[in-house]
Amino acid sequence: MKCYQHAYQKFISQHPDTLHCAPHSHHYWPDCTREAQLAYWDDSAKGVDHKWDIIFGERLPDVQRRLAALLNHPHPEQFVFASNTHELLYRVFSSFAPDQPLRVLSTDSEFHSFSRQIKRLQERPQFELVTIPTEPFASFPERWLQAVTQGSFEVIFTSQVFYNSGVVAPPIDSWLPHVGATTLVMIDGYHGCGAIPTDLSAIADRIFYLAGGYKYLQAGEGCCFMAVPKDCTLRPEYTGWFADFANLANPQQAQVAYANDGMRFAGATMDFSALYRLQSVLHWWERDGLTVAKMHAYVQQLQQAFLQVVDELKHPQLRGNTYWLRIYPIMGTF
Ligand SMILES: Cc1ncc(COP(=O)(O)O)c(C=O)c1O
To answer: Is residue 107 lining ligand 1, measured as CB closer than 6 Å?
Structure first.
């Protein structure tokens, strides 16, 4: 694989003696994101209050199309943006009436945005949470399937790749067919998106998919997104005025109305510079023919080389600590 250090000079030059390994953390930002940040400033200077025409009319639809292409999702207009995933996932939970029973199935390895919020929601009288431990990893697929099949849930929430181990969740087609049609399924894809090839085409109309730009999409914090199933009619209580942006100037109905696409889960005014940065990364990848499949294959090659060195060292503790790397597909395919 071609070397891409030249594309990260601004970050690398600040850390010339560091090899930045970010498998569980935040990617260096490529130089194109700096130009994108400045482009946001320039669009603001040029457009002033009319910059929103550029943001909503050009930039956002382009990022929707690029994300849909990245994830093989057939409906770009179903992607909605927010500064963080927490905002988006809470909007989904706020669509359920607090005085009605809400049963949620999840794992013990979800990111804090979910685990803290869900802990707080457990204080609601009719709230029930079933948590499946991901360890031991080898038996997790079987235990997860059993939980999915045996329970009756309003919401199922799981990561695509668990942030605290790098272990990939069981393939969704191994359990989704066992989920009742009325159960809302939300996948937190943040730790997989941009790192492992992800094809949502067969499940785009069935699941909510959450992710963001701060990890493998290399765009920094501030641009998270959720793909919403088409024809979703949920009415989040936690709602902002962007959620029916197109109808703001029209006479308002008695009941609060929502957009008929992903925007129904939108919030309110936010800084879109991170969206510009994400656009620049996706644009660069397209221009240079960089695909997630190529990058993933390269990383897997490095992983094997790393394991070989560990083997050669014959250190019992090191070998033990990489055991799960060998038996379980770390970042396989979704
Ligand atoms: C799996 C996962 N979900 C979500 C997030 C981020 O959540 P938020 O955007 O709510 O801060 C992270 C880490 O940044 C993560 O690893």
So the answer is: no
